[in-house]
Amino acid sequence: MNPALPTKESETRLIALDWGTSSLRAYRLGADGQRLELRALPWGVMQLPDAGDGENAGFEAAFEQACGDWLKAAPTTPVIAAGMVGSRQGWREAPYLEVPLAVAQIGGSLASLRNRDGQLIHIVPGLMENSQLPNVMRGEETQVVGVLSLSAQQDKVADILIGLPGTHSKWVQIRQTETQKEVRHFDTFMTGEVYAALCGHTILGRGMSAADSSNGNAQRDFERGLQVAQTPAGQAGVLSTIFSTRTLGLTGALDGSGQREYLSGLLIGHEIAALHGMLQSQQRLPAQIMLVGEAGLCARYVQALRCYGFDHIEVTQQATERGLWQLALSAGLLHPDSST
Amino acid sequence: MNPALPTKESETRLIALDWGTSSLRAYRLGADGQRLELRALPWGVMQLPDAGDGENAGFEAAFEQACGDWLKAAPTTPVIAAGMVGSRQGWREAPYLEVPLAVAQIGGSLASLRNRDGQLIHIVPGLMENSQLPNVMRGEETQVVGVLSLSAQQDKVADILIGLPGTHSKWVQIRQTETQKEVRHFDTFMTGEVYAALCGHTILGRGMSAADSSNGNAQRDFERGLQVAQTPAGQAGVLSTIFSTRTLGLTGALDGSGQREYLSGLLIGHEIAALHGMLQSQQRLPAQIMLVGEAGLCARYVQALRCYGFDHIEVTQQATERGLWQLALSAGLLHPDSST
Q1: Is the separation of the CB atoms in B126 and B327 below 8 Å?
Q2: How far is CA A181 from the centre of its chain?
Q3: Which of A32, A296, A340, B339 is 20 to 30 Å from the Cα of A242, by its Cα?
Q4: pLDDT tens for each residue of A291-321
Q5: A282 and chain B in contact, CB less than 8 A
Q6: Which pairing describes strands A158-164 and A169-176: parallel, antiparallel, or unpaired?
Q7: How far apart are CA B171 and CA B165, in angstroms?
Q8: B323 shares a domain with B299
């Protein structure tokens, strides 16, 4: 630490934005990336504030609300943003980087723009795997960087699987060697969005009542669904097995809230069964699995992973802000004493 | 034919109702089950006409509109109905028959009711297979009876597979011997309803424009989707592969209408791949496949079946009215000279 520049605990070192489709989260981070303040705003890329006709007026206004005062108080603070803000529909496109790639490359490939006040804003690129069925992510790459910075097995040679359950689950295969960490491959499962569409817009939702955790059977019904993909009947695949949500209601085996739990288990079970099958046939079963996401959802996935024979599972928190901090660090945006 | 009862070509022999969730089709059938008249009404079991508060007033009014005049003109005509009209939410519940069962049993198990005019109405029961993942059908059993009456291979010992693509596809395994035909097993795939929910209520629909058959690539894009389930990437299962509808749009490989065709092919391909896998592991690959359904949809399924190694596929028409006729016949409802 430079004694001429005394570090206050509360001093802003980085403004980090997690800017997705439907929300904007702004972090004010201090020394070592410690969170000093968090603001959650509804200004996702697809629902910006109405701020007149100027070019990017919505982005400008949202940015001003998110951190304008922080920048006034500490004008030299670097700013970094990840998520859909870097998509073609975003503020400035940060082109996809191609997988496989070394994780360290991501921080070296930030895009940037200046807002109307001349403030420089760095934008994290998403990742694309341009295989037969191409795959993309935006925002999750930052969580991956964050998770890896938290991993206990920093130096061991290992295959690490990072799971990011959500509307679209991502499963990211990392190969860690003594010298680097590489993103080798990733898969997307639309499990969360399919679940919502089935409950809200198909016959399966008709028999469901609001989830009632008080009946005590939620766990049993979820587990029943979880098993399906590994039974002979599960061979029929998810387009077929989902119909049992309704028929088990007709036969009285599941009540309304039970049908909801069962379908959740059934879909997650199919996801994890397919994931296990692929990793096995690629001979890439991981030494360690790290999950990031909403706590309740992660608990469901931990159960599913155990059910399908995975172990060494760890649930981590605050991956986005850790990732943004790490990326700013590797991009050289942080003042030399920031990481002390 | 009894010479004392001369048969007129136009004489009504059976009134046959195909009464589903969202529509009611009334057939006036003559000698040999020939169709003399068809009425299509919007009075499905879930959307009956508003006809006051009397018990079953909606059913009574819909029935009167569908065939009241036919019955006035020919009061002794028997009436038979199939579909959701026999469900718990229908006019009179016709309890499910359990699979496996001989096809001939269905006609011997009709439920019945009298309407407010004292007219007897016979109702066809649905089928249930109460296995680990129970399965039900209502209405399709009548199509199965109709298809089998049209089958060329009437007497050969054979495994026949009957496919009824639609909102919920049914695949019905029939074992035919010299003495009887047996429904052994059936599967349901919610392919049509899932397709509609994905197009209408997930991110996959956002990049789709209305299907434009004029671009000439529809067939190519459909086929591309069809292949997916049999590629290594298809192992990830449908919750994962559907995401490629979007990413192939992002990479420019599919335009808006192409995404729609591709997703259709992808889902049908997963359905048929799973069906083939199950039949193979059960050692029940059929000698013949008979398809019933909307012509354009059947054409898609014929292509999918060929793609996954099935052959001897026949598309049949008018299965519902043939089935209702056959069931009335085997139930003894038809006058002795009706079937001449």
Answers
A1: no
A2: 19
A3: A296
A4: 999 999 999 999 999 999 999 999 998 999 9
A5: no
A6: antiparallel
A7: 8
A8: no
Alpha-carbon span A31 to B195, nearest angstrom: 50
**A134 interfacial to chain B (CB closer than 8 Å):** yes
- The answer to whether residues A175 and A184 touch, using CB atoms and an 8 Å cutoff, is yes
Contacts 24+ apart (CB under 8 A), A60-63: A60/A115, A60/A116, A62/A24, A63/A17, A63/A115, A63/A121
Q: Are residues B131 and B200 in the same domain?
A: no
pTM of the predicted model as reported, rounded to 2 decimal places: 0.93
Helices in B177-234 by DSSP H: which ranges?
191-201, 218-227
Q: Are residues A30 and A134 in the same domain?
A: yes
The Cα B184–Cα B186 span in angstroms is: 7
- Distance to chain A for B21, nearest Cα, Å: 11
ipTM of this complex prediction, to 2 decimal places? 0.93
Q: 3-state SS of A10-77?
A: CCCCEEEEEECCCCEEEEEECHHHCEEEEEEECCCCCCCCCCCCCCCHHHHHHHHHHHHHHHHHCCCC
Instruction: With respect to residue B182, please indicate whether it lies within any of the assigned structural domains.
Output: no
Task: Return the residue of A nearest to B225 by Cα.
Answer: A133
B278 touches chain A (CB under 8 A): yes
The whole-angstrom distance between A239's CA and the closest CA on chain B is: 5
Cis before B95 (ω within 30) = no
Residue B226's domain comprises 191-309
B 215-234: CB under 8 A from A: 228, 231, 233
Q: Tell which residue, B129, B86, B124, B78, has the closest CA to residue B105.
A: B124
Q: B36: domain CATH number?
A: 3.30.420.300
C-beta separation of A145 from A106 below 8 A: yes
A240:B270 CB<8 A: no
Nearest to B235 among A236, A270, A278 (CB): A278
State the best of A45, A128, A240, A266 to mutate against chain B, taking most chain B CBs within 10 Å: A240
* Residues of chain A contacting residue B238, judged by C-beta atoms under 8 Å apart: 237-239
Whole-angstrom distance, CA of residue A219 vs CA of residue A262: 9
B135 closest CB neighbour out of A134, A237, A247: A247
- Give the model confidence (pLDDT) of A12-43 as tens digits: 999 999 999 999 999 999 999 999 999 999 99
Q: Output DSSP code: residue B324.
A: H
A87: tokens are 């998509």
